[in-house]
Amino acid sequence: MSVDFYIKLTLAVYRVTELFPKEEVLKQNIRDLANEILVDLISNNHKKCAGDIKALNQVLNLAQAYNWVDGRNFSVLLREYAKIEILAEKQVKTLSGKTVEKPLKTQKRKSEILKVLQEKKKIQLRELVQAFPQVSKRTLMRDLDELYRAGTVIRVGNGRGSCYNIQL
Known about the structure:
Blueprint: H1 3-17, H2 25-42, H3 46-65, H4 71-96, H5 104-120, E1 122-124, H6 125-131, H7 137-149, E2 153-156, E3 163-166
Antiparallel strand pairs: 1-3, 2-3
Helix pairs in contact: 1-2, 1-4, 2-3, 3-4
């Protein structure tokens, strides 16, 4: 894949998000992640690229649920970014000399966390620990932090009193 392809894909993200409601926050979150990925690809930062693509996938899936745009647009974007993610992960494995696996269960768990947040609208870490007894508190904290950094959720407060909400 060429730099030209990466630029065209980023522009496609802009065209799709242009169809979102005017003041929608997800529009800018998706564009920012697409820009980050473009920079990662051009600077050969494959490890960061793979992580940014995972974050973009989460936000695209969330936006797709709102039905603002024909789902085929999201399918194309997700498919093309998945191809880039596979290449980036292969490059990371090649450079590190060891296999780095990101289990699918991590993505599934984050999806389940988002479902719980959609139901409850607001949740604290201790409630998630009760909802996911098989997962450590630290892992749930890490998942929430990744969702927060991806712009999928917002955090209100700091420390033990923090609450998390779905970013609308």
